[in-house]
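Readers outside the structure-tokenisation community will struggle with the description of the input data as it stands. I therefore recommend that a typical entry be quoted early in the introduction. An entry of this sort, consisting of the sequence and the corresponding backbone structure tokens, reads as follows:
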Amino acid sequence: MHLDTVGLHGLPTAVRRRVLRRAAIAAGAPAGSLFARHIEEVDRLITGWRGQRAINLPGRVEVRREGGRLVIRQG
């Protein structure tokens, strides 16, 4: 799954994090193991981009930023 970082950045924080959580679950992260701290880390790939490495979420889901997109996939 690919998400546009510019579009996400323009959303209110609560809405953006809800979108990120739903995308992570759709990619295979178990909802019961996905906590606010996970979503906050993913959110920083949008709001505080500094060339961070990929983020590993529960369920072997990986989130990385590639250019202007977030790539969320099960690895």
About this structure: The first helix runs from residue 5 to 9. The chain is about 40% helix and 25% strand.
